[in-house]
Structure formats: C-alpha cells, structure tokens
Design goal:
4 strands; 4-stranded mixed β-sheet; mainly alpha; 68% helix; elongated
C-alpha cells in the first residue's frame, strides 16, 4: 500500500472525527488564555502611579519635573503625574494614586543656603508594600537629585562667569544623567522572571507536547480497528502507517504552535522583538521534530506494556525535567549538567529567554547531538523492522 493512500485514509478519518481536533484546539486556547488573563491581572496590581506637586515653581523645579518625565527613567511599571496639592490629596484619599511628592515652597532657595532639598512624601499608609516601595523610591530619587544639584553648585563655583542659560543647560544635563538609571554607571541588571509569565510559557511549551501526544493517540484509534486486518498482509505496513501518523500529528501540532505563539505575543505583550522570530521558529521546529521522531521510534520499536512505559518516561522527562514545572536550577543537584542537555530543557530555556527577555542563549553543545542521536536511533529501528 502506497504512502499516499495512507495519507488519504488518515485524512478521511480526521474529517469524520473533526470535532476531536476542534476540541483539542479550543481546550488549549482556553487554558492558555486563562493563564495570560491571570498574568495580566497580576501585572496591573504591580503598577504604581505617583503624583508630584510643585509648590516652589522655580526654573530648577521645572527642570526636575522635565527630567522625571512620566517616570520611565526611574523604574518600570511607574507613572508620574503632575497635580496641585488639593488634587493629589483627594486622589490619594480615594486610592487613585499610590502617593505623591511635594516640592515645598522655597525648596530651591533652601538648597542654595544649606545644601538640602525639603521634599515631602505622602502615602496612604506607612505599612503597605506600596508605601514602602514609594518611600524607597523617594530616597533613591533624593540621593540622585542631591548628586546632580551638588554638581550644579560646583559648576557655578568653578565658572562664576557662566551665564544663567549656561547654568540651566548644565543643570538640565546633570539631572537627566543623574535621574536616568543607567546614566551614572553601567548597570548590569539581574533579570528575574515573573511567576505568572514563567508559567504562561510553561503552559504553551507543555501544550505543544500534549497536543502532539493527543493527535498521535487519536489517529491510532483508526489503526487498531479499521486498518489492522488489511495492513497485516503488506510488508512494512505498520511502520509506514506509524510514520504517516507522526507526520499528520506534526502538521496539526505546527498549526497549534503558531496559534499559541500568536496568542502569547498578542495578549501577553512580552519583551520579544520580531527580529528574533527566526531563532524562535528554529527552536520550535527543533522541539516538534524531536517529538515526532521520538514518538515514531517508540511505536515502531516497542509494543504493549513497554510502549506505554516509554511514553510515561518521556512524559515525565518533558513535564518535570525540562524546567516547565520546576525551574532547572533546582534540578541540577539531581542530575548535574545532564538535565540541561535534554532537548526539551534546551528548547524551554530558549523559549523563556527569547519570549520574555528577547535574549538568545548560547547554543548548548547537545543541541545538534540530540538530533543526530535521534535520527540514528530511528534509522536503525526502521532498517531493523524492514528486514524482519
């Protein structure tokens, strides 16, 4: 029986059982959507809005307000809004903002006289996490303001002939440099994955595995009943049928992988940039190729109880040892560096860094060896079965 006829058989079977494919896609879309929705809600809870009240109204405070801008130079998830004192007090009382700074009247004059900036910080309470963060932020901003204003005073002392415009221009540069997180020194930030974002990628990664597994098993339903008696008379028929079943599962899983990736990039809105899409697709195809080959290999090589046992072991490796449930850093005590060389672990780590950080990890030494080993094992199994 030709391979083309086998494709037609599976195609007609899927047309009759179309609802199973739709059910799988809808199920995984709902699960992935639920995780993304929880992640979006959690991100909103971590957002801060801080007001600034300028009662001094001098050129210096105007420069400070321009340097602060909308707060993006001070930290992520932070908005800065300008209010008068009455507006800020009402909004804080109604919990519309998390706190506000007051540039007191005479602040600039006090600085030139005694070197201090009388900035007042108002929060709803003194114990909540938001108030602690705001006060810590105020200390950071205050220290950088003092550094910049001190530089301005030194400039005035060293260049007494400088015009007022020169002084204001220098002060503006100093403030923009001092208030920018990366302006004073080269900061190497430590990236920590948000829990919900981490498990959103985990959900997507595992959904690809379970979608392929489900399709591979659904197509086998037709193999055991309708085709078994007819195919037993043809040489190498079971193996050809398994290969076609794997390719069919691969085709439909590619569709789901594309849909799931679109959902994540559209609704999760991670830091991923489209110029890295080629690398992301390569790793997804690598993952899909590995799943296709390993499932075909297991079904061709093993039967009955051994077949089920191998698939259970494969599921444990992908679910528990890839880092999707337990981060790999906690598993190194168990398997040393061997676990980081598993195909599923390599792909999951790249998905995390690419989608959430837009960062490409160095290629793992086992990246190519895994495919070579899998292709070799599958080829040997097919040759052995063909000679039977």
């Amino acid at each position: 029986m030709s391979t083309f006829k086998l494709f037609n058989i599976y195609h007609s079977f899927l047309i009759k059982k179309w609802y199973l494919v739709v059910y799988l896609i809808v199920l995984f879309v709902l699960l992935l959507g639920a995780v993304i929705a929880v992640n979006q809600y959690n991100q909103k809870d971590n957002h801060f809005t801080i007001g600034i009240v300028d009662k001094d109204k001098t050129n210096e405070t105007k420069i400070i307000l321009n340097a602060v801008g909308d707060g993006q130079s001070l930290g992520n998830d932070l908005n800065i809004k300008h209010y008068n004192e009455q507006q800020a007090h009402k909004l804080l009382k109604r919990k519309k903002i998390d706190g506000y700074f007051i540039f007191q009247d005479g602040m600039t004059k006090a600085f030139y006289q005694n070197g201090e900036l009388p900035i007042k910080v108002n929060t709803y309470d003194d114990q909540s996490a938001q108030s602690i963060v705001i006060r810590q932020l105020s200390e950071s901003v205050y220290s950088r303001l003092m550094l910049s204003m001190g530089g301005a005073m030194s400039y005035v002392s060293l260049y007494p002939s400088a015009t007022e415009q020169d002084t204001l221009s220098m002060m503006t540069d100093m403030l923009f440099t001092g208030l920018n997180r990366n302006g004073s020194f080269d900061e190497q930030s430590v990236k920590v994955f948000d829990t919900f974002s981490y498990y959103t990628i985990s959900m997507y990664f595992l959904s690809i595995f379970f979608f392929f597994f489900s399709m591979f098993s659904i197509l086998k339903m037709n193999q055991k009943e309708a085709l078994k008696s007819r195919l037993e008379m043809f040489h190498f028929s079971y193996e050809k049928l398994t290969i076609v079943r794997g390719l069919f599962s691969l085709m439909y899983t590619i569709i789901w992988s594309g849909v799931g990736l679109w959902i994540i990039l559209t609704f999760l809105k991670p830091e991923f940039e489209m110029y890295n899409i080629a690398t992301l697709i390569i790793h997804l195809l690598y993952y899909l190729a590995f799943l296709t080959m390993i499932f075909i290999f297991i079904d061709i090589t093993f039967r009955n109880a051994m077949n089920y046992f191998c698939k259970i072991v494969l599921s444990i490796v992908v679910i528990l040892l890839s880092g999707a449930i337990i981060p790999v850093i906690y598993l190194k005590e168990i398997g040393g560096n061997y676990i980081s060389g598993f195909p599923s672990t390599i792909v999951f780590n790249q998905l995390l860094e690419l989608i959430l950080n837009n960062y490409i990890l160095d290629t793992h030494p086992m990246f190519y060896w895994n495919i070579i080993i899998m292709v070799g094992a599958l080829a040997m199994s097919l040759i052995w079965r063909y000679r039977q």
